[in-house]
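Recap from last week: sequence in, structure out.
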Amino acid sequence: MEGGFGHRPEALHGLTLKRAHLIQKLLRSREPSIQWRVRIGVLGDSREAARIVGLQQEIRRSARVRGLLSRHFVPYRAGTARNVYYKWQGVHWALASLTDVGYPQGDPALKPLIDRALELWLRPTYFLTYSASNRAEAGRRPGVPVIRQRARRCGSQQGNALRYVTALGWPDERCAQLAGLLRGWQWPDGGWNCDTHPEADTSSFMETLLPMRGLAAYAGKSGDSRSREAARAASEVFLRRSMFRRLSDGKVMDPRFLRLHFPLYWHYDVLGGLKGMAELGRIRDSRCEEALDWLESKELPGGGWPAEAKYYRVSPTFRSSSEFVDWGPSGGRVLNEWVTTDALEVLSAADRLTL
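Predicted structure tokens:
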């Protein structure tokens, strides 16, 4: 077997016994996605290694993936946006989850779903902007309203799409269009916000995280310097605030930011923000230190991290805020494999796994 502690004793060097046991436990997970993510994101195995490629094929055939896609290979009528964005069971969210579980790139079976999502996120109205003075004017015509020189648009939607299309191996000229839209809507402070109150002049954490991650992924694949610079500018929205504090008084911006979740969907928490910094190569910026200290403080006594809250329920039929699959236990005292793997990946990128 390639990779893993059995053939890579150096991977254990410097780890606490608790964390070494935790990683071994995750490598025995029933979820091939957890094994894959630990090997790639924590142990640094090669993506081309036979074991890694084999794990991705297990992921593609897994019960979780079958559940995520269970309702999406059905006859599709153009214009049925509900099937794309319906929270959290629409095509958009399924594709985002496939990215998170390590689904293999370039699978032709996904192309109809990607086409369906991009049909929505590249509608002609998104390429139109118009000036508005207040909230009432902002909703009276098609297009993206611009109030006080700021485009009021939910960048998380196109940002998430750019992230999963790039990660799943279907980048084409439409990715360039998504990236161009996001750059055009970017606010002076580096982020995005859909708030149509005229006095709103600061980017939203929730609307900025996914565009930042999407632009970083696209820049990494395409080499596009404009998108790389836009992602870096977006990272300053978080870094200036130490990932969770107000600029005005240094207080915690929102108590929900200090709770661990999986999946995050379009929400924000500190772990999600740190994941974005790791992807962008900025996790070792000194302004991440307090957030990394906080993450380490959340480690359970026996090892691992919990999902302290969740944004979904499970339903076999379409229901708002529901999933077709369960993402593990929630509660402050129970290890959740998905949150734990996220945390280990972040700490590994920050060089904080070892003593």
